[in-house]
Amino acid sequence: MEQSPTMTTRPIDVLFSGHARHSKAHNLIIPEMKHYLIRLQLEGSGHTTIDGTDRSIKPGSLLLLKPGDYYNLKIGYTDPERLIPLTKVHSLDYYLIINGPMVEQWWAEHVNEPLVEIDLEDRILAIWREIMMEHRLDPTNMNDIVEHLTYVLFRYMERTLAGPELSEAHGLPRTVLKMKQFIEQSSADPFTIKDVADHVQLSESRASHLFKGATGKSIMDYAIDCRLNMACERILHGYMSLEQIAEMCGFQSYTYFHRTFKKRLGLSPSQYREQRTLGR
Fold first, then answer.
1. What does the alpha-carbon distance between residue 92 and residue 54 come to, in Å, rounded to a whole number?
2. Which part of the chain is the HTH araC/xylS-type domain (predicted)?
3. Per-residue pLDDT reduced to its tens digit, 77-95
């Protein structure tokens, strides 16, 4: 992870992006960071030094270092102080080394701790992988796609770092908010209550009880609401057939879609499309 200074006029400048796998003990020391570092542990564990103390890192540990910070990463040791290696080492992480005035501003507004724990959300990982692939095409030049993808990644991390404040803004417990977000993101695909419960590491009964108590709806009722909202948008602004819309919005059959749509909205999908079209 060699660093080299660079000049940039872009709001965001990704210098290095990639992933690192370790199958042997690894001890990296950078006395003073020259750039911003974002590192996310995906698999395995290790330690990093924060304010002179070794702190554990595990899947979901997000390390956020700014220029001037000390960086010490230890992977694969039974004792991080004595550096006694483990007999078997496995570690995977994603990292970005980055600069730019937008990064500096974002850091000042959203980063309070150099090491935080976040959920390994599919959206964050997917965007990160896209950044790595795009940047690999031309690592010597920062292109617009990488810049915009990195901006999106920062927005997702911003939500994650908001933590309890984000939950308070929605008036919901954080666990319920995480369940809602999972349902919204997965509504077009088949999923079960167990999938939702597993996402927040609760039993099915506990997750269902907590969600119903906070929102007044069951998990699957909320999923149907999300699917119907998605269907309404596509009926209004798309040109697909109603059968195609039903399938793309997660309904198992058009008959079920038609029945559910009419029961909840008071008119059939075709009547909805006709009414909204005439009203334009």
1. 19
2. 177-275
3. 988 888 888 888 999 999 9
